[in-house]
Amino acid sequence: MINLEVPKKAKALVNQARQAATEVFRPISRKYDRAEHAYPSELDMLAALLDGLNTSGEGGAGAAGVRRGDDDKGGNRNGGNLLTVLGTIELCWGDVALLLSMPRQGLGNAAIASVANDEQLARFGKLWAAMAITEPDCGSDSAAITTTATKDGDDYVLNGEKIFVTSGERADAVVVWATLDRTQGRAAIKSFVVEKGTPGFEVVRLEHKLGIRASDTAVLRFDNCRVPAQNLLGTPDIDTKKGFAGVMQTFDNTRPLVAAMAIGVARAALEETRGLLAEAGVEVDYDKPVNAQHAAAATFLRLEADYEAAYLLTLESAWMADNRKPNSLEASMAKAKAGRTVVDVTLRCVELAGTLGYTEDSLLEKWARDAKILDIFEGTQQIQQLIVARKLLGKSSKDLK
Ligand SMILES: Cc1cc2nc3c(=O)[nH]c(=O)nc-3n(C[C@H](O)[C@H](O)[C@H](O)COP(=O)(O)OP(=O)(O)OC[C@H]3O[C@@H](n4cnc5c(N)ncnc54)[C@H](O)[C@@H]3O)c2cc1C
Q1: What is the spatial distance between Cα 350 and Cα 337, in angstroms, rounded to a whole number?
Q2: What cofactor does its activity depend on (predicted)?
């Protein structure tokens, strides 16, 4: 039986994350939304605290990722994925862009934690790692990657351009997806750790964005960039039967995390709006049918129901990862539901709050701007739905595009 109550052992972590969100993130949330591209130095101390949580094996509150060990003894376990999801929800209640700016909590860190061997983990585990998949001509269809990695002696030589890389400027390293051989399709796509300062690796520019402005988003160029062969994560073998399995495994861990980010932002907007409705004398009554309530209360109840569904799907997908159950379907379901929900909830909350919701006097307008990316990166809404449909109908990516 799956028990989706928050486990007792998560309470301390959830409380700590909530405290950090309240005392560190919220007070500087507006400041760094306005000061796009300025590094929030207030995060350094908090990052050190998170490092402690992650090395204690208690899971963290960022995108640290979770390692699959060989110690599976079966039975129900609430492990690192669930704890990280719960911590992420709390911190994103504070500010999602600041979470994305946390040192050493990049999506590249999740990739390293998930697929690196022990030697690589020792070398890269302490770095802050961004993740670079997207290219000018390749977004949703990540099999179309054109960045190449050519073996030359004991090195790989990388050539290509990556766009929209979160923490691409601030991170110490980037996990770069590149193909070993374009003629062999998706099976030839591998990920490589490229450290800052490696000759041939250049940050070209930063983007100006609608939301998550505190987070830097960079264009990167690799021009004959040479990395040791040992920087390839996973196996260098091109196994056309397994296809994308190696690199795609990362998504099973990271999609629940992005869903958790969406849950945190949605919860923030709902809490704020509940307070405003109460101030306006609108009562939300859980015992009365919605059609007998104020229209604003009826809308609020519908939003909360969506929020709950997204929340439970997210916990389920993380719980499955912890319990070694294949969770690609559930991770995509959670990401799709939570991404759609956070966009709807935050915009409706702006609407319910009237003019206040549209001004910078409240954070509601910021959350509405921050929400959209959560329905885009780590696979858009449409792509998640495509994955869910393929899994449910038993179709391959060739059958259903
Ligand atoms: C702020 C920000 C941060 C990001 N951070 C990162 C990062 O750290 N690393 C990284 O690698 N990338 C990152 N991205 C890129 C992001 O992952 C891509 O934008 C996303 O995957 C979509 O790719 P695309 O923009 O090329 O859109 P496209 O793939 O061109 O899609 C355009 C539209 O068509 C839809 N569509 C595409 N294919 C189908 C289909 N088969 N069926 C139905 N609809 C379809 C899409 O859902 C979308 O609505 C980031 C993007 C942003 C905006």
Answers
A1: 20
A2: FAD
208 lines ligand 1 (CB under 6 A): no
From the CB of 209, is ligand 1 less than 6 Å away? yes
Query: Looking at the domain assignment, is residue 355 inside a domain?
Result: yes
* Residues 382, 390: Cα–Cα separation, whole Å: 12
Q: Tell me which residue range forms the domain holding 157.
A: 127-233
Cα of 374 vs centre of ligand 1, distance in Å, is 11
In the reported structure, the alpha carbon of residue 378 is separated from the centroid of ligand 1 by a whole-number distance in angstroms of 8
For residue range 297-345, list pLDDT tens digits in order: 999 999 999 999 999 999 999 999 888 899 999 999 999 999 999 999 9
Distance in Å, CA 27 to ligand 1 centroid? 31
For the CA of 167, the closest atom of ligand 1 is: 8
Ligand 1 atom closest to Cα of residue 212: 1
Closest CA to 366 of 95, 38, 40: 95
The predicted-structure confidence for 40-85, as pLDDT tens digits, reads as follows 999 998 888 777 665 555 544 444 454 555 445 555 666 888 999 9
Residue 3 belongs to a domain: no
The residue whose two tokens read 């990166």 is 377
In angstroms, the CA 115 to CA 136 distance is: 26
pTM of the model: 0.94
d(CA 164, CA 133) in angstroms, rounded, equals: 9
- The separation between the first and the last C-alpha atoms of the chain, rounded to the nearest angstrom, is 35
Whether residue 117 lies inside any domain: the answer is no
Centroid of ligand 1 to alpha carbon of 187 (angstroms): 21
For the stretch 148-154, contacts whose Cβ atoms lie closer than 8 Å and that sit 24 or more positions apart, written own/partner, are 148/178, 148/179, 148/180, 148/182, 149/178, 149/179, 149/180, 149/190, 149/192, 149/232, 150/180, 151/180, 151/229, 152/226, 154/228, 154/229
Atom of ligand 1 nearest to the CA of 166: 8
What residue type is 112 in one-letter code?
Answer: I
Atom of ligand 1 nearest to the CA of 140: 29
Encoding tokens for residue 283?
């009562």
Q: Where are the alpha helices (DSSP H) in 56-117?
A: 80-94, 96-100, 107-115
Would residue 279 show up in a list of annotated catalytic residues for this protein? no
Q: Are residues 264 and 292 in the same domain?
A: yes
Q: Report the nearest-CA residue for atom 24 of ligand 1.
A: 139
Q: Is 165 in the pocket of ligand 1 (CB under 6 A)?
A: yes
